Amino acid sequence: MKALLIDDEKRARVNLQLLLEEYCPQITIVAEVENLAEGVKAIRKHQPDLVFLDIEMPGHSGLELLDFFNEEEINFGIIFTTAYNEYAIQAFKFSAIDYLLKPINPEELTAAVERFEKQLYSKESLKLLKANIQKEQLDRIAVPNGNSLLFLDITDIMYIKGDGAYSDLFMSNGVKHTVSRNLKNFEELFQEETNLLRIHKSYMVNMAYTVAFHKADGGSLELKNGTHLPVSSEKSQFILEKIQIVKR
Known about the structure:
Layout: E1 2-6, H1 10-23, E2 28-33, H2 36-46, E3 50-54, E4 77-82, H3 86-94, E5 99-101, H4 106-118, H5 123-133, E6 140-145, E7 148-153, E8 157-163, E9 166-171, E10 176-179, H6 183-189, E11 196-200, E12 203-206, E13 210-214, E14 220-223, E15 228-230, H7 236-242
Parallel strand pairs: 1-2, 1-3, 3-4, 4-5
Antiparallel strand pairs: 6-7, 8-9, 8-12, 9-10, 11-12, 13-14, 14-15
């Protein structure tokens, strides 16, 4: 597999090259350059499978790379290397884009390369990342669905039901999506999203769709469509603080 390194710091490029040689021998580095303009030329010349791209570089952000290519030219994957803030990291997670925090950890590097080798590359994920980075509040998410990615508006998710390594996303239009991501992953993903809360070992709910909390049978939340979701005992008080109880 051919890879290209784009980073304005020589030391960072050397360190990444050494890590790839030691931990990812299946990768051949075809070029390493220090800015986006040279990176674009190197991509066109070497046709790499994978690009390791620093986001913060003088002159251009790494996110602008796609602006230099037509749709049919984008046949390479990208793993970003970054020292970005926590908000931007959340944008990466929402967009299903791999990133490596500097200084790069060898285990995280090998895991990112393995994910790239297994997953379908999506240009839409990069577009979503670019949009999410520019927004004050993240509002779309990319989630794995078989050999593809689903792009969903967060506000359209009514609730999520976990089942082992998979989760069912129940949408406001009545559609259910089964995705290969466990509920714990969604809980971590939405920790900054105040409306989506873990209420049970098997459920997360969008509080915007709740109408009542019922104390009977250990506690449950009623949604606008009439669905009742169980609430675990340790979450009951927390839920009561989050919603307005509608008395029946």
